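Postdoc handover notes: sequence design on the structure in folder B. Input tokens:
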């Protein structure tokens, strides 16, 4: 784990935003090609979503990979198998 994922400098802008990466896909609900992938935080924890930017239909929701750098801090035990009780 690199140190840059452990440091949280104060934002330099009044609004914080994330980069939304265009995806080569078509929305199954509205037919739009304005589909993007970006990080979100929800009740399941950190996730990467692919969403239509016109109608907000979710095309996919996945766990972030290390190269996504989301969340900024990642538990070192995230990929460990749960221990058996008993």
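Designed sequence:
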């Amino acid at each position: 784990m690199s140190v840059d994922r452990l440091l949280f400098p104060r934002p330099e802008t009044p609004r914080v935003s994330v980069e939304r990466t265009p995806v080569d896909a078509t929305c199954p609900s509205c037919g739009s090609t304005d589909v993007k992938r970006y990080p979100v935080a929800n009740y399941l924890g950190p996730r990467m979503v692919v969403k239509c930017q016109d109608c907000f239909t979710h095309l996919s929701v996945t766990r972030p990979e290390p190269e996504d750098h989301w969340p900024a801090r990642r538990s070192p035990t995230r990929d460990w198998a749960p221990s058996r009780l008993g």
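Context for whoever picks this up: The longest strand covers residues 35-42. Don't rerun without checking with the PI first.
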